[in-house]
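Throughout our pipeline, every protein is held as a single compact record rather than as scattered files. This encoding replaces a full spatial description with a residue-level series of whole-number codes. The remainder of this section carries one protein's record, kept here as part of the documentation.
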Amino acid sequence: MGLLEFATWLQATPVSLAIQSTAWVVPTLQSVHILMIGVVFVAVLMIALRVLGRARADEPFARVWARFAPFLWGGVLVMAITGLLLTLSEPVRELMTLSFRLKMLLLAVVLASAAAFGRTMARAARAPAGAAAGAEFSTGTRVAAAATVLLWLVVIFLGRAIAYDDAIWGSWSPAVVQGTP
């Protein structure tokens, strides 16, 4: 079974049909998903700006991490749930776009790097208060922080690009190649 056949089958399942047939579900899921994108991005941005010494540099890193990490991971969890349900609402449209596929691939990279970065930052957050207050982060950590923000921006762009996949990617879009909506 190919991906198009799987997506077509998935779109005809009772869960997908229930989501599709209830007028308020998709707009509500989209609203919550978009809200969580904002929450996650701001959390990532604030942590990265602290690492770069551009915001909250007078605060110990441990305090900044403790304040924003729960929003980061909680937001990611809610985004995963709403994203899965949104994908179930229109699996053919979602799975057959290059933007969706690239977003999922990049999201896996971003989340894996965020987990690794989070472990590093959690260690820094556990450092003694005096050491963490004015801590300078290594060049590699600073680059990782900036790259994380950039990667999240690309994920956000790709999420929005799903609706315009054929216009953005043209003949590269699997939807165009396979003639799906």
Q: What stands out?
A: The chain is about 80% helix and 0% strand. The chain has one domain: 24-178. The chain has a mean pLDDT of 87.
